[in-house]
Design brief:
By secondary structure, this protein is α+β, with helices and mostly antiparallel strands. Helices cover 62% and strands 14% of the residues. The chain has one domain. It is globular, with a radius of gyration of 18 Å. 26% of the residues are buried.
């Protein structure tokens, strides 16, 4: 239940921020500085996946998103522990995938607006759904490593 609630929160926050961007910022305009030298707001229409890969292949990306959602739902018990961190990762992943899927179906592209850079190093623009997916993957990997290598877990497993 926690994963579903968290996923719903992510979808709502993602869709609200993207709607705000589409209604407030001007597409293609100069970025608006939020934190000088680090974070800007900019309205970008991403017709592809991460870093613009598969640009213009919306049908493929929609189908891929649906297949991944189905696979996550069907096989979640095989790769997720019933721990809080894995439930959070699952909710973040589902919410992020759904947030971008809604954009692809509704407007034909994904709205990106967070623009980060440090000096001359620039990271591609992203959104709440993208952040959610990245945090989910990182949390899942770290917690999976933690659960398999943590000494307390191993000593508990050996006593059973």
């Amino acid at each position: 239940m926690l994963a579903l609630i968290l996923g719903l929160i992510v979808v709502c926050l993602d869709q609200f921020t993207k709607l705000w961007v589409r209604e407030t910022l001007i597409y293609g305009a100069e970025p608006q500085v939020v934190v000088p030298g680090f974070i800007n707001l900019v309205y970008v229409r991403n017709p592809g996946a991460a870093w613009g890969m598969f640009g213009g292949q919306q049908a493929f990306l929609i189908l891929l998103s649906i297949v991944v959602l189905i696979l996550l739902a069907v096989f979640r018990r095989r790769f997720l522990n019933p721990t809080l961190d894995h439930r959070i990762a699952f909710g973040l992943m589902i919410g992020g995938i759904l947030g971008n899927l809604i954009d692809r179906i509704k407007v034909g592209w994904v709205t990106d607006f967070i623009d980060c850079h440090i000096g001359t190093h620039h990271f591609p623009s992203f959104n709440v759904a993208d952040s959610s997916i990245c945090i989910a993957v990182g949390l899942y990997l770290l917690s999976a490593l933690w659960h398999t290598t943590h000494p307390l877990k191993n000593s508990v497993d050996e006593s059973n």
